[in-house]
Specification:
Blueprint (H helix, E strand, L loop, with lengths): L16 H14 L17 H17 L4 H6 L3 H11 L3 H10 L8 H28 L6 H22 L8 H18 L11 H7 L7 E6 L5 H14 L3 E6 L4 H14 L7 H6 L4 H14 L4 E4 L6 H17 L4 E7 L14 H19 L2 E7 L22 H5 L2 E6 L1 H7 L5 H14 L2 E9 L5 E8 L4 E4 L3
Helix pairs in contact: 1-2, 1-5, 1-6, 6-7, 10-11, 11-13, 17-18
């Protein structure tokens, strides 16, 4: 969590000392630190004495399970207590007693005074960072890009703290949770979809998972050329067609190329078969072009937004998601689903520089946090390890997740993609009989995509066969 990073005039920044005094007085009067545990931290107090008082409250609570005023006072070493008394020009014990006596709302009002405290900390922290940026910007030697990154990290730290304390109710009785669950089931029954989340656009996957659920992270892993971008984009299109707001973060491919894939996908449902590569090279007939223009009219109505910037960090991604949410809200389609293509291209912070395992763990945890904080379904695409290629059976497994075991741990669902046809196309039979067998197998599985649900917190693990036309970037339900 970010702390105040520069000296600041507290009067000019609107610091109200009574807000801090109210929280401290309420905790000391009740002796119950548990009421603010996990929400309030020493850094939230701007006044140094108040910060130190709260540190002693935490220490007393940890050691003796109580934060009574007498016990907290005894936690101060004698010399330190005398120094604070000299600073106050009154005994420290008297000042603490006044905090308790002057508490307006008491322990029952902490639900009001604690958010006020954190809001004030956030305002002062933002002001201090703004001063630092303004001062650094006057130095000709300042690297502007580094200055912007540092400011973005500082502001994101404050924003994350506000998001964490603004989630509203987080504790529910089993009965309350069951009421919410039954509401979701009833909604699914009424709409006839049979799912409680966002549609995958793939019937068998919906049946196994109940859809893509808000606040959860799905990891979609594959080796190159398995079709993971086409599948992910197709899922986004189907979700948008069903009314969900969809954000697609492309760290590798530009938006025009993604749009070409989307056009071939949508046209596919109109029985228009235009290979994606033909669009890139311009080998398109006038009739096909007219059909694609017609397909674009459908695209115009889809609540799907693309962010194509590469090199984003988790901090940058949070900013992009916030902006995307604003755009989606103004368009009348709040963001429901976020797709990140692909997660290993996200930039890690300098905290774990050089340790790829820890870097990926940090990225994975950040993505999961974004899903939970924003109540979004999140699909993160992931490149799988090369060790797949060294096996005779090249079907991917959970162990093939690249760089970090945290990927499997953080994901609520892990789906792996496999196309046998890709490997058969590259192979060559040892003799005429083997070559004939290879050709026959290739013909049989040319349009087969295995969607391997390798992990699912709330359901079975199973492999589902899908139909895929790689050339047209179209993944569909398998023929029945």
């Amino acid at each position: 969590m970010n702390q105040i990073v520069a000296p600041i005039d507290l009067e000019k920044c609107g610091h109200v000392i009574e807000i801090e005094q109210e929280v401290l007085g309420a905790v000391l009067s009740s002796g119950q630190h548990s009421a603010v545990r996990g929400t309030v931290r020493p850094e939230h107090f701007i006044e140094p004495l108040h910060r130190r008082l709260f540190e002693m409250i935490e220490l007393a609570a940890e050691r003796y399970n109580s934060a009574s005023i007498g016990l907290v006072f005894k936690m101060f070493p004698a010399e330190e207590a005398k120094s604070w008394s000299d600073f106050l020009k009154e005994p420290l014990s008297s000042y603490m007693a006044r905090l308790v006596a002057n508490s307006v709302y008491g322990a029952g009002g902490l639900k009001i005074s604690v958010p006020n405290l954190i809001q004030q900390w956030a305002r002062v922290s933002v002001g201090a960072e703004a001063q630092r940026v303004a001062a650094a910007a006057t130095d000709p030697a300042t690297d502007a890009s580094e200055l912007i990154k540092a400011a973005a990290r500082a502001f994101d730290g404050v924003a994350a703290e506000l998001r964490g304390t603004g989630r509203g109710k987080t504790r529910f009785s089993l009965s309350e949770a069951a009421d919410t669950a039954l509401d979701q089931v009833q909604e699914a029954m009424q709409c006839g979809s049979g799912i409680t989340g966002i549609t995958w656009g793939l019937a068998d996957i919906n049946a196994l998972t109940g859809g893509i659920h808000r606040g959860e992270m799905v990891l979609l892993g594959a080796r190159p050329s398995m079709g993971k971008t086409a599948v992910a984009l197709g899922i986004g299109i189907k979700a948008a067609q069903a009314g969900a707001g969809v954000g697609f973060i492309s760290l590798e491919m530009g938006s025009p190329r993604l749009a070409m894939r989307a056009l071939t996908d949508i046209a596919y449902d109109r029985n228009i078969r235009v290979p994606y590569n033909d669009l890139i090279t311009g080998r398109v007939t006038e009739k096909d072009f007219e059909d694609l223009v017609a397909a674009k009219q459908e695209m115009n109505r889809l609540p799907l937004w693309i962010e194509e910037q590469s090199g984003l960090s988790i901090t940058d991604l949070r900013v992009k998601v916030d902006r995307m949410q604003d755009v989606a809200d103004r368009a009348g389609n709040p963001l429901d689903l976020l797709i990140v293509d692909y997660m290993q291209l996200l930039a890690a912070s300098s905290r774990y520089s050089g340790n790829r395992n820890n870097e990926v763990s940090e990225i994975s945890a950040g993505l999961r946090q974004i899903a939970r904080e924003n109540n979004l379904g999140l699909i993160a695409l992931s490149q799988l390890s090369r060790q797949v290629e060294s096996r005779e059976d090249k079907r991917p497994q959970l162990a093939d997740l690249r760089d970090s075991g945290s990927l499997e741990q953080d994901a609520d669902t892990v789906a792996l993609l496999y196309r046998e046809a890709y490997y058969l196309e590259k192979a060559k039979g040892k003799d005429e009989a083997a070559e004939m067998e290879r050709s026959e197998r290739l013909e049989a599985c040319q349009n087969k995509l295995e969607f391997i649900i390798a992990k699912q917190r709330n359901g079975a693990v199973r492999t589902v066969d899908l139909f895929i036309d790689v050339a047209c970037s179209a993944a569909r339900n398998a023929a029945r």
